[in-house]
Each structure stands twice: as C-alpha cells, then as structure tokens.
Amino acid sequence: MEIFELTKRFPVEERYSLTDQIRRSSRSVCANLGEAWRKRRYKAAFIGKLSDCQVEATETQIWLEFSVKCQYLDADSARDLYRRYDQVLGQLTTMIKDASNWTNP
C-alpha cells in the first residue's frame, strides 16, 4: 500500500508504464503468496508460487530503482522499500528451502 500511495505522485504520463508496473509487481507478491498458501498441499506447486513471489519482489526493486533514476521517488524512501523487499526475499528463500515445514502431506 505504501508503494501505491507513493506512486500517486508520479507524473501522469507514467500512469500506464512505470506506475502501473510497480503497482502490479508489488501487489503480485502478496497475491502469489496467498496462492502459495492455498497450494501448500502440493510441495512443488507451493515452491513454484513462492518462486513467483521472488520474481515479483525483485521486479518491484527494479522499478524502485527506475523511480529514483527518473526522480519520481526520493532515494531514502526507495532505499527503505528496497531493504524491506530484501527482507521479504530472504523470508521467501527460507520458506522455499524449508518447504516441507510449510506444506501438508
């Protein structure tokens, strides 16, 4: 939601490109995690959805970098969000590594 709020200040001409992309990827992390949880009955499906989460989190980090380079977002705000996505990525990696602890037989 923080990304959504911050992107309200992006230029109108970015509405269908950078703004849309960063909003979609940031939301997709949560959506894929929800899907992973529902698919936890099948370890491979669970891991697959967690992998999708990682991809979307990394994409969000890339869009954060573009936002700073385009001067739409200040570096401190972007750095904080980037670090938080690093934490999410670390947690996802742990979940994948220990998938057996999260899945139902």
CATH class bucket? Mainly Alpha
Residue runs with pLDDT of under 50 for 5 or more positions: none
CATH superfamily: 23S rRNA-intervening sequence
One letter per element, helices H and strands E, the order comes to HHHHH
Major beta sheet, specifics?
none
CATH architecture title: Up-down Bundle
- What spatial form do the alpha-carbon principal axes imply? elongated
If helices are DSSP runs of H or I spanning 4 or more residues, what is the number of helices? 5
How many domains, as an integer? 1
The Cα radius of gyration reads 15 Å
Return the structural class: mainly alpha
Describe this structure in words.
- Helix 2 (15-38) runs antiparallel to helix 3 and helix 3 (43-69) packs antiparallel against helix 4.
- It is built from five helices and no strands.
- The model has no long low-confidence stretch (mean pLDDT 96).
- The protein is an all-alpha fold and 105 residues long.
- It has a single domain, classed as de novo design (two linked rop proteins) (Up-down Bundle).
- The protein starts with a helix and ends with a helix.
- The longest helix has 27 residues, at 43-69.
- 80% of the residues lie in helices and 0% in strands.
- It is elongated, with a radius of gyration of 15 Å.
- The protein has helices spanning 2-7, 15-38, 43-69, 75-97, 99-102.
